[in-house]
Write a structure and sequence with these properties.
By secondary structure, this protein is an alpha/beta fold. The strands form three sheets. Strands 4, 13, 14, 15, 16, 17, 18, 19 and 20 form a nine-stranded mixed β-sheet that branches. An eight-stranded parallel barrel has the order 5-6-7-8-9-10-11-12. It has twelve helices and 20 strands. The structure holds pyridoxal-5'-phosphate (PLP). Pyridoxal-5'-phosphate binds at residues 61, 63-64, 82, 105, 167, 202, 205, 240-243, 278-282, 376.
Length: 420
Amino acid sequence: MSTHPTFKYLDDALHCESVSLAALAAEFGTPLYVYSAERLRQNYQRVARVFAPLRPLICYAVKANANGALLALLRQQGAGFDIVSGGELHRVLRAGAEPARIVFAGVGKTEAELEMAVQAKVGWINVESQGELERLNAVAAHHRARPTVAIRLRPNVDAATHRHISTGSAAGKFGLPVSHALKLVAHSRALPHVHIRGAHIHIGSQLANPQATLQAIEVALDFIAQANARGAEIDTLDLGGGFPVPYRDDDPVPDLDTFAAPIVARLARSGLEHFHIEPGRAIVADTAALLTTVQYEKEDAGHRIVIVDAGMHTLLRPALYEAYHRVCAVAHHSDSPLTLADVAGPICESADFLARAHPLPPLASGDLLALLDVGAYGAAMASNYNSHPLPAEALVEGHRYRLIRRRQTYDDLIANEVIE
Ligand SMILES: Cc1ncc(COP(=O)(O)O)c(C=O)c1O
């Protein structure tokens, strides 16, 4: 590993800020997610600085990582929140979010979730279908409310990212084509309890370059112009998230300044006044490492497999997206030869690999490994598959640290089961 912004070797022991990862593993066990509070603040401030000319409402995308301690820390930095479920609304309200700074997105909101959002007076509801707008109008009428709405567009652009995290193409399920969105704006005249004031685009995650976003922005600006020419009052563009982060030492993705510069320049001369952004990954990904303990090693005809106590139940991204995470030994030995190894978990699935052909030193049972850049879509996607308890999570701040999620117990696993 060359230098990493968050995890560094001090005297050959990997640290997060001033805390040794081996000490955290000894105290809290593994698998363990470890987050840096300082890096989380830096990332939020970097996003705020890069997009400052647009004075956007920055809504952290809770789906990337919903831990309440991280949400509270981001709220203290000034973040609003992008949520996609009643559960996420519950979490951000508990973390002290200001309702006006919440954007409720998502393709399948239930009546109960819309009800919750209207009652909580969330600032924006991003609607993705005619049925949803009509349902929201009925719910709002019942509560004598008139929520502010953005229409999510399907701009039909190719986001140049993994197909599972590309969301703006014609074949996808998200948003509405512009022609349908214009019809919906016209239809909304018959829906007095909703106020359409925004257009929303989010074309994918880990975008390789800003080109597709720039194309989607043209589609959105054209939609806004057409809708307003027909009497709509749209003054806000929600750009979504998707800003890329480097996962490899030599990752070719642009840094945030380079990615955002043409977007900010284009929007600064758009005539629009209000913007939302919904970054998730760019704020949390590189704040965290996943610590895992080596259990066994197998070798067969030169194929080295290291079996650890984390797996696809702890970190799903490699199995789901073929995602790459750097893996490093928590105790560094500079003279150790590196050989290629697969890192596999304990789950009874052939897809349960955390890394493939990754250079690793010789390892013994009990050694600790760290997978880097796991803060986004890591703990958030963890499951109880094969009846493994969810991992613990710890937050480091300087010399201090604390548990921000206790490890589940076996009793937690069965707590909601009704046997007779
Ligand atoms: C509507 C919406 N906004 C924001 C995000 C956050 O994306 P990212 O974590 O890539 O910034 C997502 C991710 O799927 C999304 O669907």
